[in-house]
Structure formats: C-alpha cells, structure tokens
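Field reference: sequence -> structure
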Amino acid sequence: MDNEVIARIVDTVVKQLNTPNTGDDITLDAAKRLIEKVKAKAREMGVRAVVAVAGKSAHPVAIECMDGSYIASFDIALNKSFTSAALKMPTSALKTLAQPGAPLYGIQFTNNGRIVIFGGGVPLRNKDGEIIGGLGVSGGTEEQDTALAEYGEAVFQNCI
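Structure field:
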C-alpha cells in the first residue's frame, strides 16, 4: 500500500472519529436477527463462533456464543464489534495500518487493548449507507471469521 493511500485512510479515520453519529441505531431485534443469520452460516462452515453486535456508540447490543465455542472468542468478538463501530472500518484494514512504521502502529494498545487489528469485524450501515454499528465474529481462522463478518454485513439490510 503506498503512502498516499495510507494517508487518505488515516485522514478518513480521523475525520470520522471527529464526526458525531446521526441517524438510526441498531435495535436489539435487528441485532438478534443478524446474529441468527451469521450463526446459521457458521454452522454451514463448521465453525463454532461467537457473534457480537455493537451499536453506533460502539457499546454492545447483543452477543451470542455457539455451543462449543472458544472461551477467548467472547472477548475477541466483542472487541471486533467495538473496533469496527468505533473506527468505522473493517478490522482487517487495520492489519496493514497497525504494522511497525505504519500510521496507526500501536493502536491495538489504546482503548484498554480493545482495538483488534485482524479480520472478523465489519461496520454495519443503515439503508442510507451511514455506519450505525459493528459486527464481530470469532471462533474460526481469520479467513473464516472475516468471511462470516462479511456475510453478516451483506445480509444486514434484511435484518433492519
């Protein structure tokens, strides 16, 4: 990734962090519907996942653990949903931006260590395209978690 692209991403993140959220928030019912869809997809993939949804304030709206999911996946999924809502970007985007020498190096140590810098978290948008929360998935490989989160992002409009 070249420096110009990184600079644009950093500028966008800073602007979004300084812009107050307006519009809808995620309801508990919508969060539960989304979680059920992601859990069904996880079952198809053979993944025992923890699925978390945060609202526009980045605070949890709902979280569910599938039977047999890893204990550690609870906090990881919760923090992925927090990261995606708070930074308004997929956690996978931070993988490059948080490397040594990159503009956001060390960001994972802020917010009491709640920032996740690997895949499995995505922002959630309302019908107007505004970010109103985040989805976090943990329990599989990074690729599986990312695929499940992206699936959830794609079907979210059917839940609200």
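Note: The mean pLDDT is 93.
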